[in-house]
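Field notebook, page 534. I keep forgetting to write these up properly, so this time I am using the form the group agreed on. The chain and the ligand, guanosine-5',3'-tetraphosphate, are recorded exactly as supplied. Prediction of the bound pose follows.
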Amino acid sequence: MSQYTEEIQKRRTFAIISHPDAGKTTLTEKLLLYGGAVHEAGSVKARKSARHATSDWMAMEQERGISISTSVMHFEWAGCEMNLLDTPGHNDFSEDTYRTLAAADSAIMLIDAVKGVEPQTIKLFKVCRMRGIPIVTFINKMDREGRDPLELLSEIEDVLGIPTSPATWPVGQGKNFVGVYDRWNKRLLKFERAAGGSNRVPIVEGSLDDPALKSEIGQRAYDDLKDGLELLDGAGSDFDRDAFLSGQMSPVFFGSALTNFGVEPFLDSFIGLAPAPRNRLTEAGDVVAPDDEAFSGFVFKIQANMDPRHRDRIAFFRICSGRFERGMQATLQRTNAKMTLSKSLMFMAQERSNVDEAFAGDIVGLWDSGQLHIGDTLYTGKAVRYEGIPRFSPEHFVRVVLRDPLKRKQLKKGLDELSEEGAVQVFYDLERMERDPILGAVGRLQFDVVQNRLQNEYNVNVSFDALPYQHARWIDGSLDPAEISRRSGTLCLRDIEDRLIVLFSSEWMMQRIIDDYRDKPVTFIAAVQPGRKV
Ligand code: G4P
């Protein structure tokens, strides 16, 4: 216990993971609306359409003031300080999405009741699992004719490999959707369709044995519900908090974000379930408690500033322990330099404001003139270093074509800096050395960003030739690049830290080659830590 314990216990720092169109924007909006952080339905949505209406980078620049503040959204709920981290989905899926999860203490996995588990759900789930992040599932769009709830649960269990425990259970679905039964509080929450879906839905509560309730939902729905609940009770899907906290079980809630149904009771349960900031491990394996007196944390994302004349940028910093105070001094672990944290921001849903004080779990934006890198640790007191944020293997590749060969030096500088900032990954051919670099990205939009930023910030005009590769693995062990280059559909490159990486034209090809090397001292690696060998 320390003087900070009470503050820290109130914090919930979480992200929503989902496949595009599952309803993340809609759910986010409802959470912010209930938390009083926005006052109008439609404000998050409007921003999303503005962002997606174009992939033109200059338009995105103008939007940037907004997207900076949407990266973290702070709101309050029932005495808790909620920090919702935005993990962009859709076209702007990028490495940022992965990195953001490093700063989250828990995640809401949003699933479309009609579509079930989708590809991006799987990707993001795997990252959460790798990090042991507890996941609460919300099955959305119950107002539509969807899949059978039991079938959805078994899909989650089979595809994602995580046991589920339904906290609520739907009564009917689609046009027959009448509500959910709250298994934990033994009450039925009845759904009332609200016009427009912008207001809170009145909840009618009642116990299962209440005859009035039975007559209200109808005998058939009542019988179905009883059968469903008996089945669940018999299936031994009891909630196990420890398993949940270690990312080994997910409680499941059903609802409909669009019609506001189930969102409020979900939020009430979520603050009880989602952990406050917990101990974090340093790279050396030491434990840092969130309420330690000494301040520490790490940078998980860097966003370039809007003004191309300045290379100022904002580093998103997750506090892991102690108290942040504006103007404080901290040590940058990587260089041992002392930094004064004087310009710092806190993010509300629609604005950003100066922050004077913050605690473990909070995200502050630090103005940075280029000193900070992704994964950097800042601390006061005893030196600590948090584990770096991995770079994930890209899935899209292009070769850079430099229009003006005299600009080679500027191109190198630009790519070095953009890669440091985490905007893109840069690779070089083994033979061609530093000529015609190859860029790799997790999402294609990253290339547009890089092209525009090279033009605007470094005055370098480039175009890209798409390369026919879809996967990449870093290589650990003794692999002769010439040997693997002879296989069709592969390309061997070096990253800017001189690690060997192989690109593959298809997953099938990659799997085949990995199988061929099964008995050899070679490992194919999907994510690496910056500054370290593979
Ligand atoms: P995303 O951020 O995950 O991509 O999803 P978003 O919230 O934008 O929702 C995708 C679509 O699904 C939207 O419809 C939205 O209205 C709808 N939706 C979200 N939650 C629910 C729900 O609980 N029930 C139903 N029936 N639909 C839901 P759209 O037609 O693409 O957009 P719009 O015209 O409604 O803006």
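OBSERVATIONS:
- Residues 18, 20-26, 45, 89, 140-141, 143-144, 256-258 surround guanosine-5',3'-tetraphosphate (CB under 6 Å).
- The first strand starts at residue 11 and ends at 18.
FOLLOW-UP: compare against the apo run.
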